[in-house]
Write a structure and sequence with these properties.
- The chain contains no helices and ten strands.
- With 153 residues, the chain is mostly beta strands.
- The strands form two sheets. Strands 1, 4, 5, 6, 7, 8 and 9 form a seven-stranded antiparallel β-sheet that branches.
């Protein structure tokens, strides 16, 4: 009878959280308008390497926008940058998918990382509001003694 000894396999690196930061934001909360940028940090439980030879990963967002990979290969946090475009709105921005687009995200053992935890709502409330204000009505008070409005607004 022979005994086969299996080599221990490293645990798969996995996403533990996603956090948001940027100007006018506190603890992941804030309100952003068209042209504002934020960084979305995808945190793993171990270091990962991003291979962009055949493409770059992106984050698909709940307002219809896309965050582009920026940095972090070789660490436990990879960063994506998102610049809010006109017409994008969300009461609380969430990540709806991490797309590889031909890239790979692998751990130190060259095993593909688990990306399921990236589909999440980062802590805090991140409001995206690019609606332009609209004047619904305008009321003008007449000066004392004037009975008609002869001014143009």
């Amino acid at each position: 009878m022979s005994v086969q000894v299996l080599e221990p396999r490293a645990l798969l690196a996995a996403v533990t959280s996603v956090s948001a930061s940027g100007l006018n934001m506190t603890s992941g909360s804030g309100a952003l308008n068209a042209g504002d940028s934020l960084t979305l940090a995808v945190n793993f439980d171990a270091a990962v390497f991003v291979n962009r030879t055949n493409g770059s990963p992106t984050l698909k967002l709940s307002d219809g926008g896309t965050a582009a990979y920026a940095s972090g290969s070789g660490s436990a946090t990879i960063n994506f940058v998102y610049t809010v475009e006109p017409g994008r709105n969300a009461d609380d921005l969430a990540v709806t998918d991490l797309l590889l687009n031909g890239s790979t995200i692998r751990d130190l053992s060259d095993v593909a990382a688990s990306l399921t935890g990236a589909t999440t709502n980062p802590s805090g409330t991140l409001r995206i509001d690019t609606w332009q204000p609209i004047v619904q009505s305008l009321n003008r008070k007449l000066p004392l003694g004037q009975t008609t409005n002869t001014s143009t607004v």
